[in-house]
Write a structure and sequence with these properties.
The chain has 117 residues and is an all-beta fold. Helices cover 0% and strands 53% of the residues.
Length: 117
């Protein structure tokens, strides 16, 4: 059964850091692109960062560039989001997305990140 599972969310004070993890299974789900999106209360889901699981090429939203880093462990079908210098505006549910070369996209259930001021 195809699934994408996020972990690592929690409550952190402004200026702190969190590391999110996402595991996709089966293996075929993590062979092309994986990405992080987030959705804050009252707002639409927005793109955060994307990585190609083969080349390692990355893209970031302007709002997180220089603070967040997306990384991968292709052998473990895993992608990470290292978040530093967190701001209250980063508070959102963070979702992992897997986009195989063929077939439909898959989404995780989300993990809550709350940044206190």
């Amino acid at each position: 059964q195809e699934q994408v599972v996020e972990s690592g969310g929690g409550l952190v004070e402004a200026g702190g850091s969190l590391r999110l993890s996402c595991v996709a299974s089966p293996r075929s789900l993590s062979l092309h692109d994986m990405a992080w999106f987030r959705q804050a209360p009252g707002k639409e889901r927005e793109f955060v960062a994307r990585i190609n699981m083969i080349s390692g090429s990355t893209n970031y939203a302007d709002s997180v560039k220089g603070r967040f880093t997306i990384d991968k462990d292709s052998a473990e079908n895993t992608v990470f989001l290292d978040m530093k210098t967190l701001k209250p505006g980063d508070t959102a549910i963070y979702y992992c997305n897997a986009k195989p070369l063929f077939g439909r996209e898959y989404w995780g259930q989300g993990t809550q990140v709350t940044v206190s001021s």
